[in-house]
Amino acid sequence: MRRRQFITLVGGMAAGWPLSTRAQQPPKLPLIGFMSGRSPEDSVYLVAGFREGLRESGFIEDQNVTIEFRWARGQYDLLPALATELLNRRVALLVAVGGDPSAQAAKNATSEVPIVFGMAADPVAAGLVESFGRPGGNATGFTLVSAEMEPKRLGLLDALLPHVPLIGALVNPQFPPAARQLQELEAAARTIGKRLLVARASNDSELNSAFGTLLEQRVGALLVATDPYFDTRRDLIIAWARQNRLPAMYQFREFAVAGGLISYGPDIADMYRHGGIYAGRILKGTKPTDLPVLQPTKFEFVINAKTAKALGLDISPMLLTGASEVID
Question: What element of type H or E holds 69?
């Protein structure tokens, strides 16, 4: 038999084989696009929480679901392109976390692909959902409401250092809730009779300038406002505060664990776990509009006693008793 005839014969035979006997391809796994305004280095524990929530919903990465990650590393202007890139991968679901700019970029990019967002402020005011109970449209998720906790943080910092007349506030003007943060911080400062020095930074150059301003003005304490960019510079900010012996308040427990003096905020890893649960439910067919926007119920006030000792600070028994965790 000639070679050409043989190839034709084999090809004809293959075309007639039942589908089940052809070269079998494994079923394509649903793809989750995960985009964040933070960086992977400071989000390890958050991704772990998200994966835990997925598991609780019956999904295990690389077994019955695939995840592709994109990170803006605090550069919010990159987020729209990251959203488009993931959508071009034909994701079944878009997870947009690591701050309000990420959630907004995802919502602006698609009105069809389901979105699970994680943000700091009010998603209704931001135009992402119609209401907390019935989000409407293609997006739901969680808000940490951490951007609304600045007065509480300022009050705790004042309770720790009642004799400090000037407190610095580090704020990112590019963070959407920044205007409200400043308004509430200034009002809270007036209430407790303290002067507030605002230092603004949205990139590394501005952060270095802000550090210089805070030192020049001789602030006695520092409040680092809620912002994902500051999360990506966590170790840098903590090291600078330690080097200059400046007591500082932060938004998440992880800052205190990493050596920061005190922190107050929601259990963010637990909220990411709930985000994973929502992602799993949507992959199973639940519509985002049927999943109410979640808010935290668990808050953590953490004191690093070792850092306090290094700064020569005595923590009052009242604050120690009120802390949810004291790191020795």
Answer: strand 66-71
